[in-house]
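Chains adopt folds. We examine one example:
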Amino acid sequence: QVIVSCLVLIGLFFVLTAVIILLLRVIRLRQLIMLMFIVICLPALSGCDDESVTIDGTKILDTFGRTGRGQGEFIYPRAIDITNDGTLLIIDKTGRIQRFGLEGTFLDVIQMPLIETGKPTGLSVGPDGNLYVADTHYYRVVVFSPEGEMIRQWGQFGEDEGCFIYPTDIAFSGDGRIFVSEYGGNDRISVFNEQGDFLYCFGSPGSDSGQFARPSALCVDRSQGRLYIADACNHRIAIYNFDGQLFGYIG
């Protein structure tokens, strides 16, 4: 009986070997691996009806864009804002301001006039519907109409009032005041009227109270009359009122 059992096992071994050899000849190895993967994973996949992607529990609704210089492509996107009619505006390191629908459909592009010495880092839609760009390495603010026409600009290199070194972002109080953050030696917030005329400024380089080290981004709460400033190299968020009075810090 032992001999018979051994012969049966040997026979089964040769039969299975022959079947495997035949499968490898008929089906490519890659296809066989894919078939095995489907057979193994099908029971688990059959119970999944949610096609959304999650990262650390956060649901990703959609993505768009890829690396490149074509329509709908980006090279280091740097700033984003949205207009009242739901148009997304995204500026990247190529100095292009691309406009998209809310679903990511490419609409058109606005090209910054100069990009040879550097690229803009800030972009904001103003209460007037115009597009304001912090043209960082050209030491100025550039304003475009909703149609993409450049209508005005202000600023020049320097430390005097109304001048910039490296402007980074722009925000609006809602009562006509425009806030511009900058770094590179001034490290302050300058305030202008809607025509770009200088009004006042606050802050200085440093890490003490009321000072900044590379203020990089601005956000306003018009209902509370507060300006939030990302004080990047001091690793904190500074909170001011619109007149430049410090309320406190987060972080």
Notes: The chain is about 15% helix and 35% strand. Residues 42-50 have pLDDT under 50 and may be disordered. Residues 2-26 form the longest helix (25 residues). The helical segments are 2-26, 29-45.
